[in-house]
Amino acid sequence: MRQSFEYHPVIGYRFIPGLKARIPHEGGGYLIRVNDCGFRCERNFITEKKPGIRRVLLFGDSFTAGDGVSNKYRYGDLLEKKIPNLEVYNFGLPGAGTDQQYLAYKEYATGIKHDLLLIAVQVENIRRVAGHYRYWLNERGEQVCYAKPYYELVDGTLILRNVPPRKEPIHEADLSKEERKFIAVGRFPKLKKMVKLVTRVGLKDLAQKAIRYQLAPEYNSPDNPAWQIMRAILEEWINNNRQRVLLMPLPPYQYVEEMGDPSHYQARFREVASATGCMLHDPLPDLLKYSLEERRGFRFQKDVHLTPQGHAALATSLTPILEKLLDDLEQGVHK
Amino acid sequence: MSTTILGISAFYHDSAAAIIRDGEIIAAAQEERFSRKKHDPRFPHHAINYCLEEAFIESSELDAVVFYDNPLFTWDRVLKNCMMAGPRSFDQFKKASRSVLGIKMWVKDYIIRSIGSLGKLDKLLFTEHHMSHAASAFYPSPFQKAAIITLDGVGEWATTTIGLGTDNRIELFQEINYPHSLGLLYSAFTYYCGFKVNSGEYKLMGLAPYGEPIYYDAIRENLIDIKEDGSYNLNTEYFGYLDSSVMTNDKFNNLFGGSPRKPESYITRREMDMAASIQKTLEEVILRMALHTKKETGADNLVMAGGVALNCVANGKVLKKGIFDDFWIQPAASDAGGAVGAALLVSHAYFDIPRKINPNGRDTQRGSYLGPAYKPSEVVAFLGRKGYPYERIANPQQLAEKIAQVIADGKIVGYFAGRMEFGPRALGARSILGDPRRRETQSVMNLKIKFRESFRPFAPSVLAEDVSEFFEMESESPYMLLVAPVRKERCLPMNLRKFQEGDDNMSAVITQSRSDIPAVTHVDYSARVQTVHPSDKPDYYHVIKKFKDLTGYGIIVNTSFNVRGEPIVCSPQDAYRCFMRTEMDLLVLEDCLLWKEEQPAFEDTEDWRKTYELD
Amino acid sequence: MNSTRDDDTLLEVTRFFFEELMPLAKKLQDEGKAFFSVKPNPNAQTYYKKREKTIMHPESFEVVGCDSFDSFEEALIDMWTSQGYSELTKLAPTLLKLAKSLYFVEEQSEDISPFIYVMF
Ligand SMILES: [Fe+2]
């Protein structure tokens, strides 16, 4: 398998610019094409915009970059097909937290003319925001730990740390006990427990019984330290962007398949929207309209990333909102 | 609309995949290069993944997927063979039922699991094993019309076929069937001489010039009957492959005075003479067969494939005899090439795509540079991540000049550039290079870099226009499939007295300078030549050209980039690892130069001498 | 495959080989029938055989039997009948059973956790 990422002195890493690769995967494998800026986007990023073209800058993690599916099946690419005269610049960066996505924005996107900034926050990203290190696999399939950039909130101000991140892998043993807590796990815990439960009672029963787990306690209270950092990043990002912003929390499958209670994270994202005045689109209600069986098909068997069907459902949910927003913007009905 | 076909060969030896678009070879690669397991026979997940990557196509958008032989007929042969061989064949039956009945028969399921689709046809196509070989030989050849000979161990039933290719049509009209097989005969001798079947055949061929064909008569009288027309049958009483898992039996051993040589033990006169004897037999069959084929087809040209076609010494003789005006051999002649052949056959015989012949008179194999390339950006990403020191020379002329200078200084260079070769030979994309003028080059490369038997000579890469300056040959040999004599005036007399008097020690012969290009001159003053054409591989051509500017010699030593038992390197990571494990001086990764002495200590997490089974 | 299944399969293979295949082989041998020559024939003019199928037509690319278990047994019977070896057709039902027991499609080994990325 090809190496797909390279070191980046600010973000930590990015795709290798110009890379074309096919990644073996349980879904049959997928094709990735990387533009000359190091993002998995069919378009090269151009500062100026052609007249009549509407441009959306799209940020997110692997769900937005489209792990598991070829470029053309991703929701960002599907939007381009559904909405006339639309260009989507996909800045999705797999494995990245909202902090690194914000850094990618500052590094590569600030000058780019656009109509709308779409920030897709996979709900689990909060874990990465809290992390200072992260595990990766090396060419031999061994886990190695690399430092990542992260923010600290000091007296209400975001302070960037770990930049440039150390190039060499870090041995866990070299970290203090305190620091070791900041190795980002990336996924919500209790997963094993949940899988066991699902195996026991079956997915449908589980949903019907509405046994709901608190998947992400970080969202339980506005005062949670991880959330505070996340919120500060989102607010700074949204407030600094000159164009309209659409914020979209992307639910992990546990919410889509009704295994968890989304109300806390939904409340938190609403708070950000009202504080900043940005638009908010929560796709979860739309996704829940599908049958449970269809929703199960929105992720792969083992890999929880979106299948082409999952991307299509997400694009279907987004299209009317985005189209209306862009039309309104064009006609000057906003802000 | 274009037509894209994926071809797969698997589950026997050296699995591979290839992709053909509108009759043009887009990509082809062997699984071993990715899995790092030599001659990997498993389902070629990685090779298929690479082919789809190169063609940049979704599996569902393929027009067809084809498997290179017919598992049902293979099973027919396995079953009937055991019925003929009797109860002693139980072990063989056990093994074969697992691999054919349990796995190969259901290759379709492997494909669906691997890539999720069988393409637009939604069914898997199959060809016949020797049809795949024939297609791999004829379609990429430069000829509008050519006679075809395929020779291998065994496919379903056939072991030898003869036919004719015209435009996009292939016809095979004669065959010889299992258990009569020139490939299996040669492999029996390979085994007997202590080399590995299916990979050591090359060593046996390299050993032949040291020996005398004193067993030739015994072979002709007992093992094989060769008719005037080159057709042959074996006396299977002497072979083990019908009812056991070894190639020879006691009767064979008794005929040649003892048990087989133990692998890795001292090579004696007997093995050298055995090698010379079987080589002579093989050449005789092939020459007669070529004459017969000429008579049957009236064609001016010949194409060949199947494992036996890799015997470049025999090929050289056919060419020299002038039976055909010209000939072309599929460089991936063994089963890996079947993936290309099968996909080409489906393109032309199933989809009826007209065949495109290269207008410049050369073939359409594209120098066999059909594997993955790694962009300089990918190389730099790798080196940057690891923090390995390197120097980058973006100007191709300066780069070639620098490399040539290093070689001329007697250093050994690992050269990694462009798309990887398809087939067993390294042709300057994944090669180790050295100075052919130096006597020590052969032993240094053998012992410090390849860690292999020192009797094996290295091959030269020579500027296509300079070939006759060094060798008695006029034709091109871009795939290292021809052996030619070194020009007489370059040869030096050798003192063979001790060797001829019975001292088996080959090193006394090897260490003598045989010519002014000793590192590539075999003991019989021959060389296995690669001619390098600027349009096939400009970067490599320029390295040799610059070497010529510096030394007056438009020729360098080229050996495959690997250690013994290791598949040829594929990725920059593989190349770096191999570089650090050996005594190479310089590593060229595209336009990056890495000096051994500047590299940080290499933490080898595995004992590669255990990882790679000796070949 | 677990080891009990392996043992059962081996038993099946052994039983088929010694109780069905070998007796049939012996019978054919006693009748003087051979599937191929095992020795040269000095009197033969040539050892080349004329091939029946000389070119691949589009339909020759389709092999019935490798498609699914459903067609496998019949494909064997058709093959042997057309070759004139109808004696072999009675092996087909057991061979289908064997194929089912031996069927093995290996799992792909790349079972990387989807949230740990490859970076080297
Ligand atoms: Fe073959």
Tell me what the structure shows.
The complex is a heterotrimer of chains A (335), B (615) and C (120). Chain A is α/β, with parallel strands linked by helices and 335 residues long. Chain A has helices at residues 62-65, 75-82, 98-108, 125-130, 177-180, 191-201, 203-209, 225-240, 253-256, 263-276, 284-287, 292-296, 308-330; strands spanning 5-8, 12-15, 20-23, 30-33, 54-59, 86-90, 116-122, 133-137, 143-147, 150-154, 157-161, 183-184, 244-250, 279-280. Chain B has 615 residues and is α/β, with parallel strands linked by helices. In chain B, 36% of the residues lie in helices and 17% in strands. Chain B has 22 helices and 21 strands. A 9-stranded mixed sheet of chain B has the order 13-21-20-14-15-19-16-18-17, sandwiched between helices. In chain B, a hairpin with a 6-residue loop joins strand 6 (145-151) and strand 7 (158-166). In chain B, helix 7 (182-192) packs antiparallel against helix 11 and helix 9 (216-223) packs across helix 11 (269-297). The two termini of chain B are 45 Å apart. Chain C is mainly alpha-helical and 120 residues long. Chain C is 45% helix and 3% strand. Chains in contact: A-B, A-C, B-C. The A-C interface holds A 1, 3-5, 13, 24, 26, 62, 67-68, 94-95, 135-139, 141, 143-144, 146, 186-187, 300, 302-305 and C 108, 110-112, 114-120. Strand 8 (169-177) of chain B pairs antiparallel with strand 1 of chain C, so a sheet runs across the interface. The structure holds fe (ii) ion.
Q: What topology emerges from the helices and strands here?
A:
The complex is a heterotrimer of chains A (335), B (615) and C (120).
Chain A: E1 5-8, E2 12-15, E3 20-23, E4 30-33, E5 54-59, H1 62-65, H2 75-82, E6 86-90, H3 98-108, E7 116-122, H4 125-130, E8 133-137, E9 143-147, E10 150-154, E11 157-161, H5 177-180, E12 183-184, H6 191-201, H7 203-209, H8 225-240, E13 244-250, H9 253-256, H10 263-276, E14 279-280, H11 284-287, H12 292-296, H13 308-330
Helix pairs in contact in A: 2-13, 6-7, 8-10
Chain B: E1 4-9, E2 16-21, E3 24-30, H1 31-35, H2 45-55, E4 64-67, H3 71-85, H4 90-101, H5 107-115, E5 124-126, H6 129-138, E6 145-151, E7 158-166, E8 169-177, H7 182-192, H8 201-207, H9 216-223, E9 224-226, E10 232-234, H10 250-255, H11 269-297, E11 301-305, H12 312-321, E12 326-329, H13 335-350, H14 376-386, E13 391-392, H15 396-408, E14 413-416, E15 430-434, H16 440-450, E16 459-463, H17 467-470, E17 482-485, H18 497-500, H19 507-510, E18 526-532, H20 538-551, E19 555-560, H21 572-581, E20 586-589, E21 592-595, H22 608-611
Parallel strand pairs in B: 1-4, 4-5, 6-11, 11-12, 14-20, 16-18
Antiparallel strand pairs in B: 1-2, 2-3, 6-7, 7-8, 9-10, 13-21, 14-15, 15-19, 16-19, 17-18, 20-21
Helix pairs in contact in B: 3-4, 6-13, 7-11, 8-11, 9-11, 11-12, 15-20
Chain C: H1 3-30, E1 49-50, H2 69-83, H3 92-102, E2 117-118
Helix pairs in contact in C: 1-3, 2-3
The structure holds fe (ii) ion.
